[in-house]
Structures are given as structure tokens and as C-alpha cells.
Amino acid sequence: MAAHRAQWKGFIKFGEVSCGVSLYTAASTSGRIAFNTINQDTGNRVRREFVDSETGKTVPKEQQVKGFQVENGQYIELDSEEVAAAVPEANKMLDIRAFIDCHSIDDVYFDKPYYLTPSDRISQEAFVLLRDGMRREKVAAIARTVLFRRVRTVLIRPHGKGLIATTLNYDYEVRSSKAAFEDIPTIKIDGEMLQLANHIIGTKIGTFDPASFDDRYEEAVAELVKAKTEGRSLPRKKEVKVSQPNDLLAALRESAGVQAAAAPDKPKRTAANANTGRQKAARKSTAKSVVAIPQRKAS
What is the CATH topology of the domain spanning 8-28+87-173? Predict the structure, then answer.
């Protein structure tokens, strides 16, 4: 991580053992395509200004302060020093409170991942001891510390040669799934549809390879910009057809490569095959007549 600057440096403590650690951002959005807001008439970029909601006058940066609304239109001013002083003392200590099963936390609580590494040579042995101990016991660690002026709960897990520290959302920040799912009806699906669905899932079993997933949005926007620059026709949005309940079984069969059982189509009657049919009927009738005539015995 020498090419990257540590976002935070501190210590991690388990029992009476502690070591220095450095925290690095594991995911970044800096590589995404970004848009600028421009004036359609002039083609120039526009800049953002803060305007007083009552007077309509521009407020310079030095006059902008934080405020908390206590009543409608009534605010308490809080400057940056007051906010910083109110934050619990940041002692730069990742204090491990407990070791838990790696899969015991619903990932809806996961916020942002960071890489943890030893911050110096002296800390390497204790760092490796913690990493290998957790890996052997198949556990993760729950720790708390102050990160970026907030008290954060952090999930720490072994990852390769280092550790991953994932900040966790607080319970009040995670919305209940009950309200989101309450309108989903109870539907029992079994028989052929469920078997076909299981078959399709079975044919798609694989492993997660991040390199195999492209950012289709970024590619599409880049292609759009290129097309407009070159004066080419723009791509059209493709319609997605939602499977209707009465077509669901047919869609499953098609996905699974299964043809629905159906009676063979009757051949169309033409003059040629009609004549052939009459000839077959005549032969069949003659055959029946021959069989029906008794043979006389020679006298």
C-alpha cells in the first residue's frame, strides 16, 4: 500500500496485546465517469453558490456555519470546533469487544470496507498472531473506535495477508425489511415450475469473480459520449418484458430447454395425399376381402 496514503493510523487491542495498524480505503469511486453541470446556452460550466433563503443574497464561505433546526425556521449555530469537542475522545484505539462467528452479522449492516495493515515492523508479529488466530478459529472481531469524527462499530476479518475492517451501520440506520416486504403475497409454488426453476439454478451455479463483471453503466456512457462526438446514431433503450403469470411455465420451459408435451400435428389434407389415402383404403379393403373368402378343398 506504499502508493496510497493511510486514511487513519492507530492501534488494535485484543486482551493485553496491542499493535499499531494503518487503515486504507478498500473501495473507491474516483474511477467512475463524472458529469459537469453546464449552461446550455453558453456551454460553460456553472458553479454552485449558497444563497440566503430569505434575502436571496449569496453567502460567502467564511459566513457559512453548521446549524441544527430546533423549531421551524429556528436554528442553533454550531461551529466546527464545538462539534469536534463534542465527539468522544479519539484515542486511536480499535478496542476489540468480542469475537463472533464470521456469518452471524446480516450484511445489510455492512457500510464501507477498509484494509488494515501493520503500521510498523514492531507491530508485525502481534498483527500476524491476531490474523492467524482468527483464521484458525473461523471468527471475526467486533471493535469500536472513533473514525472520521464518529464513533464507529467495526467488523474485522482475516483477508489474505492482512485484515479487512468493515464499518457497520447502526441499528437505527437500517430500515426494517417488514415494511418493504409486507405487500408480497404468500404464494405456494410446486410441481413442474419449481423443478424447472431448480434445474435452471443448477445450470448457473458458479463462483464470484469480480474481474468478470464489467461496469455496464460506465461502458454505456462512454459509448454514448463517443457516438455523440462522432455524430453517430444513439443507442436505443431495450424494453424488458415482464413474465406474465400465465406465461411463466412456458418461459421456464424455454429457459430450461424443455419442450412442452403436445400431440403431433395432423398433416394437411391435399389432393395428392387424399388420393394416396384412397389407394391405401382400397388395398386394405381388398386385403380384408381376400382373407374373408374361404378356400375350397380340392375334390
Answer: Ku70; Chain: A; Domain 2 (2.40.290)
